[in-house]
Amino acid sequence: WPSLKLSTVNRIHDLPGMQFSEGVDTDAAEVEASVAVPRYFAAYEEAFGLPVYRPVKVAVVCERGGRFRIETDRGNFSARGVINATGTWETAYVPEYPGAGRFGGRQLHTKDYRTAEEFAGRHVIVVGGGISAIQLLDEVSRVTTTTWVTRRPPEFRAGPFTEERGRAAVAMVEDRVRRGLPPNSVVSVTGLPVTPAVEAMRARGVLNRLPMFDEILEDGVSWPDGTVLRADVILWCTGFRSSLDHLAPLMPGEPGGGITMTGKLATQVAKDPRVHLVGYGPSASTIGANRAGAAAAKELVASLGLA
Predict the structure, then answer these.
(1) Are 105 and 232 within one domain?
(2) Structural domain tally of the chain?
(3) Do 92 and 83 meet the contact criterion of CB atoms below 8 Å apart?
(4) Where, if anywhere, are coiled coils annotated (predicted)?
(5) What is the pTM assigned to this prediction?
(6) Which residue has the higher pLDDT, 35 or 254?
(7) Residue 1 belongs to domain spanning
C-alpha cells in the first residue's frame, strides 16, 4: 500500500553480490516500499544481466515425457526442474464467520487498503495480529475510532530486528516444515517490534486489543458473551494463501491440506523433488527467500547433474 515506507518494514535483505543501498537511497526513509523494492530488483537484474521475461502468465505446469511442460501466454517451455516463487499476494485470506454476508458496512483486506482518510468518521474493526495489522491500525486510528481484534494475545519484541534474529526466526519455522508440520505464522516467531510508533499507539490506547468475535451482524459484530460492537468497516489483516493453482497437475493437495516437503530441504516437494517452492513458510521473508533460493538452486544443479 502507498503508505508502507522503508522506515516501517522489518528489513529488506541484500541479494547476493549487491547491497540494497546500492540500488536504493536507504537514507530516504519515506521512500515507498512498493517503489524501492522493484527499483532494487531492477538494478540487480541489470547489474548481473539476468534474462527475466515479463510479463508472463503461467497457466499450468505438467509432466510430459519425464520433463516439465510450462504453458504460458508467451509460449510453452520445457524444463527438467522448477523453482516456484509466485508468492501469495494474489490470494488474500479472509476467514469465514457467521453473518459475513449480511454485514451492511464495508469489508476489505490488507491487499485492498490504500489510505486511512477514506475511513474518516467511521468506526473500523482491524482484525489480525501481524505487523501489517499494527501498521494499518496506527494509520486508521489517527483519523477515526478503531477496535483491534486478534485470535491470540499479541507478543511484542523489544530491540531491533537484526539479521541474527531473522536467521533464528527462519530456522524455527524451517524446523517445523522439515518435520512435516504446518509452518507457524512469521509473527509467531519474530514477535511484533516495539517501535516508537507502537509506543505512541500504546499511549493513545489504540493497542487495547479484544479477542475474536464469533458472529458478524448487519451493523457490527458480537461475542459469545452477548457483547455487541457497532462498526462501519471490518479491515481483515489476516494474511494470504499460496498461489499454486498452476501446479495442480503435479501436486494435488494432501487430504488434510497443504503440500508435504521432503525434509531434506524445506522447499523441496515430497511428491516430486524436482519442484521447489520458495517464498512460503520459512522462506516467506526476504532473508529466508534469499537463503532458500540459493539452496534450492544448488540442489537442483547437483541432482540434475548440471554442475
Answers:
(1) yes
(2) 3
(3) no
(4) none
(5) 0.81
(6) 35
(7) 1-52
